[in-house]
Amino acid sequence: MFETIKSIGEKFRIPGKLYSFDAITLGNINSTYKVIYQQENVGFQTYLFQRVNTVVFKEPVKIMENIDHVTSFICKKYPNQITLHFHHTDSGEIYYVAEDDCFWRVSNYVESVTFNSTEDLSVIESTGEAFGNFQMQLADFDGSILHETIPDFHNTKKRLDVLFADAERDVCGRACEVKAELDYIQSVRATASELSIRFANGEIPNRVTHNDTKANNVLFDRRTHRPLVVIDLDTIMPGMAMYDFGDAVRFIANTSEEDESDLSTVYFDTAKFRAFARGFIGKVKDSLTQDEIDNLVLASFSITVELAARFLDDYLVGDTYFKCKYPGHNLVRARCQLKLAKDIMNKYDELNWIVRDVVQNG
Ligand code: GN1
Ligand code: MG
User: Fold this and answer.
1) Ligand 1 centre and the CA of 112: distance in Å?
2) Is 106 helix (H, G, I), strand (E, B) or coil?
């Protein structure tokens, strides 16, 4: 790997001598490395190297175009804000396709800390502020210039249709193991699909959204724990604002990890939900419609069921999409998300009440 990293660094004209590299294993799709160079007169300089998963992102050049548009826009509008900068190759591109067809990009490394899970409600509120702010900053960005890099990425109805079609085909012979999960998803299929159907019919505003609002996609200052920058811009596309909210709370308000196998520890934490809602809604409430606000909880439920369906589907077709750390990892992930979805449903009225209270009283 050292030789690969070294040769990629050369393509991006990184000066100095490659000193060390470490894999960052948080993502489920791309491969990311923190790479340190020793440079004359500068000392140690850190970069982020990423190999984009081209099975998932079939047109990676389009992703880079999207990212370029969005980061340039933010950079121009808010020149003092930290943004991601991508390095150019000799031929002036912000990516490099190696001989083995691997797609590489190199950006600045922002010294920071991220939170996978935290009990600190003020960090959770700040995460909400960061994603809400991100959406606000892009409110006047022309979304029509963005490519839809993964078509129907958050089209819950289609995701569920795919799941049931794959369960029918059952290429790995695993469908018999997941009958209970399929039955549950079938029982909530209409409810979980509702918003995506309304969105497709043009009844819900089409906004520029992040589409992967996990808490660890916000970088925080190590000392002050204030948000510095929102990262992972691969899935920036037109979408539903409330799904960004929902995706964030299904991750941050989980009392356990996203892939917890001990389901007795998996709950949807209402205090964490309130903290995130305060941060997010505080930033976006004047731009969201009443209908969007009224459906934030349904969106949280829907995207949780959607992700469960995506994990379950990947399990059924033989684990080809998400990186797995052990056999059955996708099934564990799916069960965890389903447990969470059920708990959101149990707390549905309380969560809606919290949203109303946050909108009125902050
Ligand atoms: C994937 O690789 P990562 O962690 O950024 C996935 C998201 C899922 C997430 C679940 C392009 O994101 O949609 O919510 O895993 N990204 C893609 O952890 O499918
Ligand atoms: Mg991502």
Assistant:
1) 21
2) strand
